[in-house]
Amino acid sequence: MKLQRKNGLRATALGALAISGALVLTACGSDNNTGADTSGEKTSAASNIKCDEAKGQILAAGSSAQKNAVDVWVNAFQAACSGVEVNYQAIGSGGGITKFNQGQVAFAGSDSALKPEEVEESKKICKGGQGINLPMVGGPVAIGYNLEGVDNLVLDATTIAKIFDSKITKWNDPAIAKLNPDAKLPDSSIQAFHRSDESGTTQNLHKYLSEAAPADWKHDPKSKSWLAPGGQAANGSSGVASQVKQTQGSIGYFELSYATSQSISTVKLDTGAAAPVEATTENASKAIAAAKIKGTGKDLALSLDYKTKAEGAYPIILVTYEIACDKGNKAETLPTLKAFLNYTASEEGQKVLSDAGYAPLPAEIATKVREIVPTLS
């Protein structure tokens, strides 16, 4: 099945909830719409969410890239499952992995797969098992900008690399002007913003620039920390987006949902295809669909193609993984962990992503995730 945005959400209470809740995380809630089916599983009358034996609170932390998606999922899950709370802290991928390997959270969100040494460390927490990568959220990393009078900006990988590496510092630089012959570019300084925290979003931008502009980006593509000189730092994707929103002449990187929610203009990429490619969920899906599974066993770490020149494929992409123990999960949180991840990986859970600015998983990958989550122990 090709990755395509569905033509609108179906008219159910969950669809309405996804739209209204895309940007706001409500407190733990309950309703009177839960009942029992013939197998004894609790389900929501407004959806197909199965609560199973979910109860109490689970803690999770990590990627801010998926924060808006998690908000939608949590709203729906808590509405369906009375008395259940999923508390997700968007502290960045690095922070999430640290908390996971310290046994502080039931799962972590990360925009990059666990490194070998992180997997080894996870074995101390996952008794008899290890941490595995379960892809759950896909989407474009938008290059957002704030430049008065310019609402259609085209850049390529080389130019983006030089801007964030402080080698291009003026908006009317010849390299930018060549890509935008019809734009009225001001003779003003570029204010570039980057993440201050360890971030999988940063790492994915590093990977893109390292592969698409290797001659101009010499920084470690595996680093979650920002390494280029100059620029200004802000915490989280929300922090970078807020700074770009309020700073004239600025540019930064963050997930598309942050650009959409704050009406921030985004760069179109000259990838070498026939036409510049816009940052949209559909265009990101075209790039993510080419991903290959590189993990083994229950681990579903993916290999992404950042250099694609396919028509309409937006190459600055990331996939956020939910990291959990394959074995050795805490008994008190395991039922809620499985119920929540079963929902997020389900067709229904994936369907709400597009309206929140994300790309649903390719069908083949989603199917594998759905097979693995019930086996967590």
Automatic annotation (TrEMBL):
InterPro entries noted in UniProt = ABC_phos-bd_PstS, PBP_domain, Phosphate-bind_PstS
Reading the lineage from the top rank, the first entry is Bacteria
Start and end residues of each stretch annotated as Disordered? 213-238
UniProt key word Signal: yes
Tell me the ranges covered by the PBP domain, including all copies. 54-348
Give the keywords, sorted.
Answer: Phosphate transport, Signal, Transport
- Among its keywords, does the record have Signal? yes
State the signal peptide span: 1-27
Note the NCBIfam families from the entry: 3a0107s03
PANTHER family, sorted: PHOSPHATE-BINDING PROTEIN PSTS
What name does the UniProt record give this protein?
Answer: Phosphate-binding protein
Q: Which organism is it from?
A: Streptomyces xantholiticus
